[in-house]
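User: Before I run my own analysis I want an independent prediction to cross-check against. Here's the chain; please return only the structure tokens and, at the end, one sentence I can use as a sanity check.
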Amino acid sequence: MKTDFNINTLREEINSFEITGQNSYLESYKEFIKYFKSVNSIKVHHLYIASHFVYGWMPTILTLKVQSEKEILKLLNNARKTKVLAHEELETLKVCINNSMVGLSKLLHFINPKKYPIWDSRIFRYLTKKKSQYGIGDVQNYLDYVILIENISNEKEYKVIHKKIESKIKYKVTPARAIELVLFESDKKSKNKTNPND
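Assistant: Structure tokens:
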């Protein structure tokens, strides 16, 4: 995935960053994070519950395809560890979660909010400048995004930016969440300038 987004762009965007009209969205986020903190090992029960609450954020109806329950649960539990899952492992999980990289990214984020940023159409559009959604379901594009977020959060000056973001949302979040929120709101702001009804 090609993008010109970097620490300098983030610094510019943070100057006008603000959360608009998403109070229940922000409050539910904290509850979803809390849910997985209380889970020691992900079981099929957690997969069903969490997949459905993640899809409460989306306009699509969820279809779960848990054909290899043991493998899916193993991958989800591995996702809780520090290493990001490999391309083929993400492909396996994607098929299970509506064949959607967007839905899977949200589930993975709540399982491990430090390593997996949320991926959606606004993020994709902002980073790629593409008008079409072609490529949003590509696992490699998501992995490129994961690396981009990690690289930016490791920049020396990122800590100052992170504090500014947290001061605006009024609670602590991981860099993966903080940067994603700025991208989401920046796309929303730019779309509203060109199309106020979006």
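Sanity check: The chain has one domain: 7-190.
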